[in-house]
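Tutorial sheet, problem 5. The two components below are modelled jointly, 632 residues in total.
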Amino acid sequence: MSPGRSTASPRTPPESARLSTEIRLAVEQVSYAYSANPTQAPLFTLEATSFQARPGEIVAILGPNASGKSTLLQLIAGVLQPLSGRILLNGFVIHSLSPRNRAQRIAMVQQESRLLFPARVWEFVLQGRHAHGRSLRFESSDDILITQNALAQVGAAALSDRLMDQISGGEKQRVILARAIAQQPLLLLLDEPTLHLDIAAQVGLLDALRRLSAQNRYTVVVVTHELNLAAEYADQILLMQSGRCLRVGPPALIYQRELLEQVFQVPLKVEMRGHGRPRVTILSDS
Amino acid sequence: MQPLTFRKLLFHCLLLLIILFLVVVVALKFGAVPVSLYALGRDLLRVVLGQSSQMSSDYGLIIQNIRLPRIILGILVGASLSVAGTSFQALLRNPLADPYVLGVSSGAALGAIFALIAEPHLTLPPVFAALLTPLCAFLGAAATITAVYFLGRREGQIDSTTLLLGGVITASFLSAIITFLMSTVNSGNTRGMVFWLMGNLSTSFQKSTYWFLAAGFVAATGVIYASANDLNLLLSGEKEAMHLGVDVRRVRFVVYIAASLLTGLAVSVSGAVGYVGLIVPHVMRLIYGSDHRTLIPAAALGGAIAVVIADTLARIVVAPSELAVGAVTAVAGAPLFIYLLRRRPA
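Model answer (structure tokens):
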């Protein structure tokens, strides 16, 4: 890449409008079945699901446990192969890309896995550069610059020389996000990024995410349990229940009391607020 | 932020090379016939310059024909086992993985013994006959690591405790078969039981064997080193590595094969020398960190240093008799294994 370019922006040129009409991610009638034994009936199925997302757009996948949220995310990440249908990223079938090509376009933020040996924060973020360039190599000055920039973008520049197992959960989640940014992806996938975070850290992370998706024009797909955070930050909601995608649309359309009560099996109240961002209150039985 | 540069890597390796050289000189000095350091230095220089014919005849022969080949064998065995251990540790995400602990060495030994028993009954051209032992040792090693890998899996994930237990039990089972074979098959060219179970560097081989070993070591280590960065990412888990662009299935396959080859080669000439692949990578990680671009060459050189030292001790501790080198490495390695096992987070 040319050194003159801003260091952590994805490959598409920035546009003035926040949402363009260009479709970046297209999930077309994707289904999946998982069985432990090929002769047995599948233990879990995902029925045909379709949706589209544009650059700069945040899509939240909502649903109770075992509704197929994470499976759908793994399918979009290209790690699982769909049973039918296809998933296109800028027109390319994701699953047929090589792991290296995929990692240049798609970054995944997962629950932190325990590190086997202690690593510094900068070493961890530098891993995001692996897919760019030859497999065996020494990091270039561009890689270093992009790493520093990614850390700065999530407000974690000061953590650079700390050890990964000596920072807080919220800091760690931001560092994992920085590693994803260092990949310079077109598509950013997050699997329950706010789990185990306190409220300030949750809001901090999602604010950073919204700012980054607008600035760098990432398409973001996030799996979450947080109804209110999803309503606050997402442009599109995908509501799932036991392997089926019930609805896709903006939060104001999806957040209807009967629908949410049926999916989540709790009595709740939905307030519609001015800017199309509904708020959900869980009602206890008493 | 100080990323690894080629110059830094070269510096680390050079330092270890110098230490290895000093260790070799000391190892050459010790033995039944005393040799002065000055004479040693002079003779070593002549060997390096290819003028070995000019060596003073009295101890030149001892050095060139007895001590030096044994040291070279130690270097190759140590480097191979250490790189194999480093690879298994990265692939299995377990700092306690070692060819000996996992039973891979015993599998290789069993393969080699089968080859030695079968060889007289087969009519092979001499080239293939020489290759049969290392080939069978490699197959034994590869079969064992495959078996232990699946033994250590629970619900699709490698479970560290199950893996280690599976390895130890496999090793014990294979050792029992080796003991059985050595007791029943009375064959002149199978070396003793202690050789296979404990490891020993006292056998001398034809010159071509050393070249074959060295070539095998360079090829397998080169293949593993080409995946050094992939191994770094694999440390944080297979799924994460996949998302970061590592072709996990390919890397896993290639590195398992190469590490099995290294184990097979080492075991076919020295028996099952234990714990080298555990101690050396551990020490090198403490010094150089866990970046495989440094760790692999450091482990190779460190393994060479460790085995040459261990074998020198094995030769002099109970002189004029000698110990099996595996006894020395086990005395150092087993306590370290226990220490690492206790310290490990549950």
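Marking note: The two ends of chain B are 31 Å apart (CA to CA). Full credit if you identified this.
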